[in-house]
Design a protein that fits this description.
This protein is of the alpha/beta class. It is built from 12 helices and 12 strands. Helix 7 links the parallel strand 6 and strand 7.
Length: 285
């Protein structure tokens, strides 16, 4: 049996009872280690679960999936995912490979950022398409995520922006030379995401457009959702470029049309209540 087990968002104790029971009876336990991170390391998980964990990076999952599934038809194997197995990042390919090999599978769900984001007070059914904001480089500055945020806002919907994670990435030089040398991990902050969005707004204006999203659009910053030191801050997009949230992981919400109840909740987390209210009341239902 292949078990896909969600670990939740906080620490080792966020696994469900059902998930923990499955992990403890598995012969091999893999920890997916490239789409998200918990607030604790591999060693803390091993101590609580009572099992040794095998780190599975992107290369292992996408190119060596057969090694994960090896003998899963005759013994139990667990694949652990931070959040929910089918939350922000799906692992459908692993399931499809298992089915083709005649290996049964079981999914054990858990909380993910996709539903825990409701902690800020915005109602989940008022969210549109989720987008990913990627790190820009000197030669690659995509703006497609901005168009999706604009479309959501035009429809009155909020947008959850998942921020880029760079784990076990190679520089272009090392990649071209085939050297297995990896860059230090990088996690995009809300500040970096906001700066990129502000840059796109300026670019659009230079092209004669007036974007649906401006410096004064109300946004919500979230950090380490589900952890004891979780942090939430609401304010304008401009304020998001300087707000202090601490360490990763961060997420950003660009609001659409807000219900009065949503607005009241956001006031609890406002960076500056006076400027927040002046902008927020422009988009209430």
């Amino acid at each position: 049996m292949l078990y896909l087990v969600g670990l939740g968002l906080g620490d080792a104790k966020d696994i469900t009872v059902k998930g923990l029971e499955a992990v403890r009876r598995c012969r091999r336990v893999y920890l997916e280690a490239y789409t998200s991170v918990l607030t604790v390391g591999k060693e803390a998980l091993e101590e609580f679960y009572g099992r040794e964990l095998i780190l599975a990076d992107r290369e292992t999952v996408e190119q060596e999936a057969d090694s994960i599934l090896k003998e899963a038809d005759v013994c139990d194997v667990a694949f652990l995912v931070v959040g929910d197995p089918f939350g922000a990042t799906t692992h459908s390919d692993l399931v499809l490979r298992a089915v083709k090999l005649g290996i049964p599978y079981t999914v054990i769900h858990n909380a993910s950022i996709m539903n825990a984001v409701g902690c800020c007070g915005l109602q989940l059914y008022n969210f549109g398409e989720t987008v990913s904001i990627v790190f820009w480089t000197d030669t690659w500055k995509p703006e497609s995520f901005f168009d999706k945020i604009e479309k959501n806002r035009q429809n009155g919907m909020h947008t959850l922006c998942l921020l880029d994670i760079k784990v076990k990435e190679q520089s272009l030089e090392n990649l071209m030379k085939g050297r297995k040398i990896y860059e230090p991990p990088r996690y995009m902050s809300v500040n970096q995401a906001a700066e990129q969005l502000l840059a796109i707004i300026q670019n659009r204006r230079l092209q004669g457009e007036e974007p649906e999203i401006t410096e004064n659009t109300v946004c919500v910053a979230l950090a380490r959702v589900g952890a004891p030191d979780q942090k939430i801050a609401s304010g304008t997009l401009c304020q998001m470029s300087t707000v202090e949230l601490g360490g990763p992981l961060h997420s950003l919400i660009v609001t659409g049309t807000m219900h009065p109840l949503e607005l009241e909740m956001l006031k609890l987390f406002s960076v500056d209540s006076s400027s927040f209210e002046n902008n927020a009341f422009q988009r209430t239902a």
